[in-house]
Amino acid sequence: MNYRKLKITEMGRMSVQEFHEAEKLPLVVVLDGVRSLYNVGSVFRTSDAFRVAGVVLCGITATPPNAEIHKTALGAEDSVVWKYFKDTMEAVAWLRDEGYTLLAIEQCEGSTMLNDFHPDSHLKYAVILGNEVKGVQQQVVDACDGCLEIPQYGIKHSMNVSVTAGIVIYHFCIRNDNVQKGCNS
Known about the structure:
By secondary structure, this protein is an alpha/beta fold.
């Protein structure tokens, strides 16, 4: 069988306005002190792909408009709603007030392996990803409702933050029946 690549005009993508009006995955991605602007842009692009409800940028994490973020986001920084907080704990308090269940993506004692986690379709979640070197701040981990960990089987003990975000967002998209409907519509 021959496979012909689709042209952009054949993909039926929605406009930014249609994206803003569309049902969203009840998930917010929080970046706690992420240094790389390319990682930030990549998280925006993945968040757009799965119609994530929003991205929260904290601390030293750069914000749009920014040429380096745009280089990997390719315009997703315009479609995905985002908010900035100088301190991640302020973001945690805001998200809790908004009714989110907070989950650090971190290797912790008692963490739940991502493959064992099944999102509750009645809850909204915020996943917090940390700095490329130090991870999620301990005080932020302490303020969360739980920790999720991605199983790893090699010799390294961490993954790139944008890759981690992609794995986690995809997991939320496929693991919840109500969410799955939103991901596929």
